Amino acid sequence: MPLWGTASGPPPPMSEAGGAEGSGGSSSSGAAAIRSLLPTRRRLRLDPPSKLYFPYEPGKQVRSAIKIKNVSKSHVAFKFQTTAPKSCFMRPPGGILAPGETIIATVFKFVEHPENNEKPLDQKCKVKFKIVSLKVKGPVEYVPELFDEQKEQVAVEQILRVVFLDAERPSAQLDRLKRQLAEAEAALEARKKPPEDTSPRIVGEGLVIDEWKERRERYLARQQIEGVDSV
């Protein structure tokens, strides 16, 4: 069951996938129709801009990646939606980006086996993804309920359609996908590492080890020994 429809939420902007979703525009509310006439200024820049590329491997869970950049002057919350929530999921499913901040999101999808003797790459995938955005005040904590509380301010950034790539045939899209996936994994590992502790080390019963204090104590000890020797 789709997570979005033509009768709920703001109408999607013009896109490659907009034909099917935009056909119900005549049934939209008056307010939504007025908003659709206004010039759309995107808050996010997507790379790829309108497609999600997946390696075609039937019977396996495959990955895609998309770079999301906040090109506005305010903090922006974003959220993924999909028409197939049981077979697809996103990491992260949403978040908040500061002005100019970029994140690479990973999208996971299970690839079904072809039906009716179709050629693998000739299949038309009906699964679609949607990215919505919301302007927020400052660096607040991300919760999905933000979009429910301010529905009228939510904008559809893009509807993404799925494109399968031949995993055995080198191509520019496949190479680019591999690079983005590697960047996403590296960023995930970096977030897992605990922040470097620059405070003084503490051992035992709260004893603070101070390098300069140690040096001073050693210097005074040497002075006392030398004084005794001279006597």
Word description of this protein:
This protein is an alpha+beta fold and 231 residues long. Helices cover 26% and strands 29% of the residues. It contains five helices and eleven strands; from the N terminus they run H-H-E-E-E-E-E-E-E-E-H-E-H-E-E-H. The chain has helices at 18-22, 30-37, 145-149, 172-192, 211-230; strands spanning 44-47, 51-55, 61-70, 75-82, 88-91, 94-97, 102-110, 128-136, 155-165, 202-203, 207-208. It has a five-stranded mixed sheet. The longest helix has 21 residues, at 172-192. Residues 3-27 have low confidence and may be disordered.
Question: Strands, helices and their partners?
Answer:
Layout: H1 18-22, H2 30-37, E1 44-47, E2 51-55, E3 61-70, E4 75-82, E5 88-91, E6 94-97, E7 102-110, E8 128-136, H3 145-149, E9 155-165, H4 172-192, E10 202-203, E11 207-208, H5 211-230
Parallel strand pairs: 2-9
Antiparallel strand pairs: 1-3, 3-7, 4-6, 4-8, 5-7, 8-9, 10-11
Short key terms for the protein model shown above:
alpha+beta, 231 residues, 5-stranded mixed β-sheet, 5 helices, 4-stranded antiparallel β-sheet, 11 strands
Briefly summarize what is shown:
Helices cover 26% and strands 29% of the residues. The chain is an alpha+beta fold and 231 residues long.
